[in-house]
Automatic annotation (TrEMBL):
This is Extracellular solute-binding protein. The keyword Signal applies. Residues 1-24 form the signal peptide. It comes from Devosia honganensis. Transmembrane segments: none annotated. It is found in: Periplasm. Pfam families: SBP_bac_1. The lineage of its organism: Bacteria, Pseudomonadati, Pseudomonadota, Alphaproteobacteria, Hyphomicrobiales.
Length: 447
């Protein structure tokens, strides 16, 4: 090649190199969120606030949100497959109870291992309590950053209670008998499915947490004992299963079919919206997102026709820790794919998303109890009242690698009873055998 042609070629190559950024990174983030659908506010916050602000400050990094509209269990299965094969998004929304099983299975790396010093020195840790941090931790290692926590309660259609002759404003059930008596009155008044207590496999962890736990805690028991052993046979389990049987089999006070349908949880939301269900045991997310104005299951005139009550123990004083009322809290957040090609950039985005500025911005999209103490709860009567009343009563799921598998057996046990396939005694015996095979007999106890 002549010197003249060589110079021309080098000049063209140089011009091309100048036209293309010297360094660019593409990141993607997945969450169970769809604009106009499930967790719409989360998707809107990430798309409209977090990503534009981050990319403006980091022009060499491009971020794409993958909106996932399926069920929680479907996303969990997809992430397990992706993380085990080196695929999947760089950052993903994640439920804290999954951390132990994913960590034990080698499907996650701790942030210390993945990121190192930048993670340890993040300013946000000074504003996140050890309890909140533990939601996405396991055996002393932190695997993600929590977005917030929640509480659970009984949501009621005040308008339907009033029509049935129950003073919705003054009524607070003090026992399961009170709940069932109210459900019977509502049934007599024409409400098709007065009471919803989540059950069955299709609803996944929503069955375990919003349904089974909320009843079981009312008996004074939990899924594990004080030594961390799984309780596999007990009066509390039997009483909880008898409650399910009363609601769905004996007296048809709830939508039995919905507990077995793939879209059963959405059906329970629609039943409440449409006035077919008057009492629904759910998390505060139900108010903040599911029934919010503009949501798929928006309840018209929500604050006039809808209110909440504390979940009563089986009898006054018979609940967990001798309480009259019970609740349980979980928490979600975000983790980094252990196989990401860009761990430092992924952490840069995640820590930016969880900054005080961005989490405060999230409150404008969806008020909530955030993980950072320097992000105040907005002026929301609902959040103020529920957090003050229920956080002192709440507990949490065991931070144990076997919990997810045991939870699936809880779902099967409730479905067997609700469908009428097994009696409570038979279902409990089946549960005992399954859990013993999962955790070993030495890690179980019968009361």
């Amino acid at each position: 090649m002549s010197n003249r042609l060589r110079s021309l070629a080098l000049g063209l190559a140089g011009a091309t190199a100048m036209a293309i950024p010297a360094f660019a990174v593409d990141l993607d983030i997945t969450c169970r969120c769809v604009i106009g659908g499930v967790n719409s506010a989360t998707a809107e916050w990430i798309e409209e606030s977090v990503i534009p602000a981050f990319e403006a400050a980091n022009p060499d990094i491009n971020v794409t949100l993958n909106q996932f509209g399926g069920e929680d269990a479907q996303l969990t299965q997809q992430l397990a497959l992706d993380f085990s094969t080196g695929a999947g998004p760089d950052i993903s929304g994640f439920d804290g109870f999954l951390i132990p099983s994913f960590a034990e299975g080698g499907l996650l790396k701790s942030l210390d291992e993945l990121i190192g010093e930048d993670y340890a020195n993040w300013e946000g840790w000074d504003h996140i309590s050890p309890g909140i941090r533990s939601i996405l931790s396991y055996e002393g290692e932190t695997y993600g950053v929590g977005l917030g926590t929640d509480v659970r309660m009984v949501f009621v259609r005040s308008d339907l209670l009033d029509e049935a002759g129950i003073d919705a404003d003054g009524w607070q059930p003090s026992s399961w008998t009170d709940l069932l008596d109210a459900a019977r009155k509502l049934k007599e008044a024409g409400v098709e499915f007065p009471l919803q207590l989540n059950a069955g496999v299709a609803m996944g962890e929503a069955t375990t947490m919003q349904g089974y736990w909320m009843a079981l805690l009312g008996t004074g028991e939990a899924v594990t004992d004080a030594d961390g052993k799984y309780i596999v046979s007990s009066p509390g389990i039997l009483d909880t299963l008898e409650l399910y049987k009363t609601i769905y089999v004996d007296e048809a006070l709830g939508d039995q079919r919905a507990q077995m349908l793939a879209d059963g949880r959405n059906r329970s939301f629609a039943n409440f919206r449409d006035g077919k269900t008057a009492m629904l045991v759910e998390g505060d997310w139900f108010y903040r997102s599911v029934t919010a104005p503009g949501a798929e299951f928006e309840v018209a005139d929500r604050d006039e026709v809808m209110s909440w009550k504390k979940m009563p123990a089986q009898e006054p004083g018979a609940g967990w820790n001798g309480q009259d009322f019970v609740s349980i809290s979980g928490g979600t957040g975000y983790v980094i794919n252990p196989n990401t090609e860009h761990p430092q950039e992924a952490w840069k985005f995640l820590s930016f998303m969880m900054s005080q500025e961005q989490m405060t911005a999230f409150q404008d999209y969806q008020p909530g109890i955030r993980s950072r103490s320097d992000v105040p709860i907005p002026d929301s009567p609902f959040l103020t009242e529920t957090s003050q009343a229920l956080l002192p009563l709440t507990t949490a799921r065991p931070n144990d690698a076997n919990y997810n598998a045991v939870s699936q057996e809880i779902q099967r046990m409730t479905e067997a009873v609700v469908s009428g396939e097994l009696s409570p005694e038979e279902a409990m015996a089946q549960y005992k055998a399954a859990v013993v095979s999962i955790v070993g007999e030495e890690n179980t106890v019968s009361l």
